[in-house]
Design goal:
The chain has 255 residues and is of the alpha/beta class. Helix content is 40%, strand content 14%. The model has no long low-confidence stretch (mean pLDDT 96). The structure holds 3-methylbut-3-enyl trihydrogen diphosphate (2 copies) and magnesium ion (MG). One 3-methylbut-3-enyl trihydrogen diphosphate binds next to helix 2.
């Protein structure tokens, strides 16, 4: 679907100057979509699109960290993505492993704390091991929490949360009980949800947590997503009035 984002006509510098650093989203969540279409347009195999997507991942992390966004969550592989051809899944897992090994030093240097959410036990053992190592090695990072959603499904997360509830009486269950049993209960809910490649859907991402997230969709394919698009999404977000169901901006509301 073609979307119009007039802000994206501006340059990165112009947009950066428009970002209000005192009202940054605390948590940005991104549905990184369009690697396959990016590759197809160039008559490349899909996996080359995923490889190009890694460059955009690096750029997005750097931009958010430099701005001072404390939480960034990237949707890297969904539960439904297990339906893809084995070759593509194998390629993606290989890229993920390379990424986790290759970026570890830089994450440590830059104070990035890596976390992962999803049914991680579905991941191949070698990928899981590298993920655990990088997560443990970066656990003390204080600059930004980078969360990768891997083998992640929003409905699966809710099911897993409900299963882990230890309540005697169903009548006693409240929203906070569910929230406390999500995969990353200590992270704030996303304020801003970004999706690339023009698709106007959620695709089972963070269903519980995005209840009041502001949504920004851009036409660019994920490999072409750069600092300019991060700034445009934030400027757009900062122009919205978040009401949280009330009639005026809620007292203490962010953004
Ligand atoms: C997103 O790109 C990356 C993953 C889902 C792993 P796609 O692979 O979905 O790219 P399109 O949607 O086919 O263009
Ligand atoms: C969502 O993209 C999942 C990720 C970005 C990892 P998809 O390409 O899998 O979503 P659909 O199939 O277009 O809904
Ligand atoms: Mg897709």
């Amino acid at each position: 679907m073609e979307i119009t984002n007039p802000l994206e006509e501006l340059s990165a510098d112009e947009l950066l100057a428009m970002v209000d650093r005192d009202r940054l989203p605390r948590h940005i969540a991104v549905i990184m979509d369009g690697n396959g279409r990016w590759a197809k347009e160039r008559k490349f195999p899909r996996i080359r699109g995923h490889r190009a997507g890694i460059k955009a991942v690096r750029g997005c992390i750097t931009t958010c960290r430099e701005l001072g966004v404390p939480y960034l969550t990237l949707y890297a592989f969904s539960m439904e993505n297990w339906k893809r051809p084995e070759r593509e899944i194998k390629g993606l897992m290989k890229l993920l492993k390379e990424y986790l090994i290759g970026e570890r030093e830089e994450m440590l240097e830059k104070g990035i704390r890596l976390r992962a959410i999803g049914r991680l036990d579905y991941l191949p053992e070698d990928v899981r091991a590298v993920l655990d190592e990088t997560r443990d090695a970066t656990a003390k990072g204080t600059e930004m929490t980078l969360t990768l959603a891997l083998s992640y499904g929003g409905r699966a997360e809710i099911v897993d949360a409900v299963k882990s509830l230890r309540v005697g009486n169903l009548e006693d269950i409240g929203e906070e009980d569910i929230s406390e049993h999500m995969y990353a209960p200590d992270h704030p809910d996303p304020d801003l949800l970004v999706r690339t490649s023009g698709e106007m859907r959620i695709s089972n991402f963070l269903l519980w947590e995005i209840a009041y997230a502001e949504i920004y969709v851009t036409n660019v394919y994920w490999p072409d997503f750069d600092a300019k698009h991060v700034y445009a999404a934030i400027v757009d977000y900062q122009r919205r009035e978040r009401r949280f169901g009330g009639v005026t901006p809620a007292v203490g509301a962010r953004g």
